[in-house]
Design brief:
The chain has about 250 residues and is α/β, with parallel strands linked by helices. It contains nine helices and seven strands. The N and C termini lie far apart (about 35 Å).
Length: about 250
């Protein structure tokens, strides 16, 4: 049975990916930062359907907790085949000139340093040159990396731009080591992240500008993530799937 670690998997896209992965035969490590109840709920649902999963708390903005997270996966599953870098934060909408240092540090620690360090730990375990069996990494980016999210989230957009660059560079570096690295770029998905940004009903406000005239579902993003994580995408690395309603 292949194993998958999903960061930030207690809600939204992460939770939907965990459930779909379990349905596709993966044993799933459900990482969460604060919401133990929600993470336990995801695990309980997987177990009730005959799958394998466990929840592990770790703050992926901190290196020592990332190391502890991967050690827990080692101890529980014995190996790691897939990493989904899903954890990320969004803060209230602000113009660029109003961004402060502490906010930028929080944003980049979680959305950039976290995925970088998680990728490092995953490659150390997956690389065939380091004794691993190969594997896949899927980074959850955002359409904001292409739009820049002006007047709202330029800091968030910049972190996702960095994640896109990481995806391209790392994919080329570890391609000969049996590790494929790809990304999805969702947008306008019905999750709690819009409330984190201070506008829970943001999708309703902008949906007429979306070619498909609606927001997306976390489950629709999960389908793209699972394709990239699986052998169905075996000849793809360094690519991006935009799940944005045509925007």
């Amino acid at each position: 049975m292949k194993t998958m670690l999903i960061t930030g998997a207690s809600r939204g896209i992460g939770a939907a990916t965990a459930l779909l992965a379990a349905q596709n035969g993966y044993a799933v490590a459900v990482n969460y930062q604060k919401n133990k109840t929600a993470a336990d709920g995801v695990v309980k649902q997987i177990l009730s359907q005959g799958g394998k999963a466990f929840a592990i708390q770790a703050d992926v903005s901190k290196e020592n907790e990332i190391v502890r997270l991967f050690s827990a996966v080692d101890n529980h599953f014995g190996s790691l085949h897939c990493l989904i870098n899903n954890a990320g934060i969004l803060e209230h909408q602000k113009k660029f000139v109003d961004l402060d240092y502490d906010r930028l540090q929080r944003m980049f620690n979680t959305n950039v340093l976290g995925p970088f360090l998680c990728c490092k730990e995953a490659v150390k375990r997956m690389s065939t040159k380091l004794g691993g069996e190969g594997g896949t990494i899927v980074n959850v980016s955002s359409i904001a990396s292409r739009t820049g999210a002006p007047f709202e989230y330029t800091d968030y957009a910049a972190t996702k731009g960095a994640l896109d660059t990481l995806t391209i560079g790392l994919s080329k570096e570890v391609a000969e080591e049996g590790v494929r690295v790809n990304a999805v770029r969702p947008a306008f998905i019905h999750t709690d992240i819009h409330a984190d940004g201070g506008e829970p009903n943001r999708i309703e406000r902008i949906k007429e500008s979306i070619p498909l005239k609606r927001g997306g579902l976390a489950e629709e993003v999960a389908e793209a993530i699972l394709w990239l994580a699986s052998e169905k995408s075996s000849y793809s690395t360094g690519i991006f799937i935009d799940v944005t309603g045509g925007k």
